[in-house]
């Protein structure tokens, strides 16, 4: 009808246009891709620099941050990814991915590089090297979340503008910061891709959808 604004795309159409990458150098690539798809986005593995160009966001999985750092440089994805994420492309890092996004790393290797897009200090293997894997209750955005940690970091300092989204809420590490968000960057010390709880991936897809809709 004349005078009425044209209807915008339905939310479903918007989410179908959302193309998210999963950095596929190491880690739970398939599980992250499945969680993103279940949250309404298209998900593609990313190994080459040119695959970064048309992404609406990227997930950096867990693994070993020192190895992933070296592989990012060797595969030529470090610089383009650093540029896009610092220019505002949404990024979600889990465990080693959190380390790779942080501006400051404690107990890292001197030669490990970071994307430097999240103003936090993280400590690698913070829960103790002997603790390979454990589960702990986390309060995430005010709700309970059952979290799986694997040789995980925690956050020791958050910069201005970094929102603390999650903390361990019981046990010896109670109070430790394990989920944060700063503008376009989301990070968790734990692995939500392993538990079938899609809330973190849904949150990230939502961040990416908002970023895309403001850019359109
Ligand atoms: N300890 C690893 C590191 O420092 C992270 C472990 C993980 O991603 N599950 O990179």
UniProtKB/TrEMBL annotation:
L-glutamine binds at residues 63-65, 124, 150-151. It comes from the Bacteria. GO terms for cellular component: cytosol; glutaminase complex. GO terms for molecular function: glutaminase activity; pyridoxal 5'-phosphate synthase (glutamine hydrolysing) activity. The active site is at 95 (nucleophile), 191 (charge relay system), 193 (charge relay system). Pathway: Cofactor biosynthesis; pyridoxal 5'-phosphate biosynthesis. One of its GO terms (biological process) is L-glutamine catabolic process. Keywords: Glutamine amidotransferase, Hydrolase, Lyase, Pyridoxal phosphate. InterPro entries: Class_I_gatase-like, PdxT/SNO, PdxT/SNO_CS. It catalyses: L-glutamine + H2O = L-glutamate + NH4(+); aldehydo-D-ribose 5-phosphate + D-glyceraldehyde 3-phosphate + L-glutamine = pyridoxal 5'-phosphate + L-glutamate + phosphate + 3 H2O + H(+). Pfam families: SNO (PF01174). Its EC number is 4.3.3.6, 3.5.1.2. In the presence of PdxS, forms a dodecamer of heterodimers. Only shows activity in the heterodimer. Belongs to the glutaminase PdxT/SNO family. Catalyzes the hydrolysis of glutamine to glutamate and ammonia as part of the biosynthesis of pyridoxal 5'-phosphate. The resulting ammonia molecule is channeled to the active site of PdxS. This is Pyridoxal 5'-phosphate synthase subunit PdxT. It comes from Virgisporangium ochraceum.
């Amino acid at each position: 009808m004349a005078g009425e604004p044209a209807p915008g795309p339905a939310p479903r159409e918007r989410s179908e246009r959302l193309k998210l990458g999963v950095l596929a150098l190491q880690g739970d690539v398939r599980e992250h891709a499945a969680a993103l798809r279940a949250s309404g986005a298209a998900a593609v593995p990313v190994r080459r620099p040119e695959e970064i160009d048309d992404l609406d966001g990227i997930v950096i999985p867990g693994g070993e941050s020192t190895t992933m750092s070296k592989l990012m440089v060797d595969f030529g994805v470090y610089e383009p990814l650093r540029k896009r994420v610092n220019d505002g492309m949404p990024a979600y890092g889990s465990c080693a991915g959190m380390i790779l996004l942080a501006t400051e790393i404690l107990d890292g290797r001197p030669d490990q590089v970071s994307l430097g897009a999240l103003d936090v200090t993280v400590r690698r293997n913070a829960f103790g090297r002997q603790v390979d894997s454990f589960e702990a209750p986390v309060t995430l955005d005010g709700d309970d979340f059952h979290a799986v940690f694997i040789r995980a970091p925690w956050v020791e300092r958050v910069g201005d503008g970094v929102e603390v989204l999650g903390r361990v809420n019981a046990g010896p590490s109670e109070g430790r910061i394990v989920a944060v968000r700063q503008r376009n960057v989301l990070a968790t010390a734990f692995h939500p891709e392993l538990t079938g709880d899609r809330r973190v991936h849904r949150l990230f897809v939502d961040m990416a959808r908002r970023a895309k809709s403001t850019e359109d």
